[in-house]
Design goal:
Elements (H helix, E strand, L loop, with lengths): L2 E10 L3 E4 H5 L6 H8 L3 E4 L6 H16 L8 E5 L10 H8 L6 E5 L5 H14 L5 E8 L12 H4 L5 E10 L5 E9 L7 E2 L13 H5 L6 E2 L1 H23 L8 E4 L4 H11 L10 H4 L6 H11 L8 E8 L3 E8 L1
Parallel strand pairs: 4-5, 4-6, 11-12
Antiparallel strand pairs: 1-7, 2-3, 6-7, 8-13, 9-10, 12-13
């Protein structure tokens, strides 16, 4: 049975840098307040007219060069996003069109912060069963056009940024590389702890002026509840995935964490005795780019020489839904 190997990684973030001081001019907040609670110093916002599909395509061009393959070899595209360019169809068809890859399979996965991890699991299953040999997994998010830039929305608005990252996933017969174990979970009773209520099909009509006035069309979060669950679930799933793989936490050479809050990642590392040299956080530069965070961190870690071929690499994430999970891969 073939295994899935990541042969190319790419990322793209917009040029526009928005600092904490920039946001403090729009709402009651300060650089000190944001950094203390989240570790974020700045984030990137798209210019008018740029789409999530365009960002994903730019990241894909970089990944294709690393993989050393032609784009026509891509047989399927999985798009992880909570912010598709349009309500429907999903993001994957627009990415496919940007790449001029008509005819290949396309699919969206809406798992927010765990979307990229779930997408990797699907790509792994497709490749292991022989359905496809080359799958493009993308995470692309534009948050900036959907945030509330006033004090009422501050707790969410300061966290999120725009960006994209991709993996080229290919079949390999090398038993010493690829995905070793995956651990995925969800708990829907907390779905409303981090969500956007409206517009929604449960409403008639789906969106009203009253909903907009009340701020129900903007993301809302019960921050303490999210934080409490994240610092519990991340160590749980990391330990569970290592147990499935028959390894210990200390056997993992490098950990790629979702970038939601620096304090969450610091807590997980402290709880599991993971030293600073075995991970990389870049939330200070980009904020939370949701489904794009795992590939963006991976790309930068490779460039810094922190992830190298042959290493045992772990990917761990927690997010809205609630959903969470871990994947171990021999890089």
């Amino acid at each position: 049975m073939p295994r899935m190997k990541v042969t190319g990684v790419g990322m793209y973030v917009p040029d526009r840098v928005v600092t904490n001081n920039d946001l403090s001019k729009l709402m009651d907040t300060t650089d000190e307040w944001i950094v203390m609670r989240t570790g974020i110093k700045e984030r990137r916002y798209v210019p008018d007219g740029m789409t999530g599909a365009e960002m994903a395509a730019r990241a894909t061009d970089i990944a294709l060069k690393e993989a050393g393959i032609e784009k026509k070899q891509i047989e399927a595209i999985i798009s992880a996003t909570l912010s598709p360019d349009h309500t429907f169809p999903g993001m994957a068809p627009f990415i496919q069109d940007k790449l001029d890859l008509g005819g290949c399979a396309v699919m969206d996965i809406r798992n927010q912060c765990t979307g990229f991890l779930y997408s990797m699991a699907v790509a792994d299953a497709w490749i292991r069963t022989g359905l496809f040999k080359t799958v493009l997994v993308t995470g692309s998010e534009i948050h900036s056009t959907a945030l509330e830039f006033e004090t009422r929305g501050r707790d969410v608005t300061v966290i999120f940024g725009d960006g994209a990252g991709v993996f080229i996933c290919q079949a390999t017969d090398d038993e010493n590389t690829g995905v070793i174990a995956t651990d995925l979970h969800g708990e829907g009773k907390y779905a409303k702890a981090l969500w956007v209520e409206a517009e929604g099909q449960v409403f008639h009509p789906r969106l009203t002026h009253k909903m907009l006035w009340e701020g129900r069309a903007f993301p809302r979060m019960k921050g303490q509840l999210v934080f409490t669950h994240a610092i519990r679930r991340l160590p749980e799933t990391m330990n569970a995935c290592c147990a499935k793989a028959g390894v210990k936490i200390e056997d993992v050479d490098f950990w790629v964490f979702h970038q939601a809050n620096l304090r969450i990642n610091e807590f997980a590392c402290q709880a599991l005795s993971i030293p600073p040299n075995k991970t990389l956080n870049n939330i200070d530069k980009y904020g939370n780019t949701t489904a794009a965070t795992l590939p963006i961190v991976t790309y930068e870690a490779q460039k810094k020489g922190l992830i190298k071929r042959g290493m045992l690499v772990g990917f761990a994430t927690f997010g809205a839904g609630f959903t969470w999970g871990t994947m171990l891969m021999r890089w």
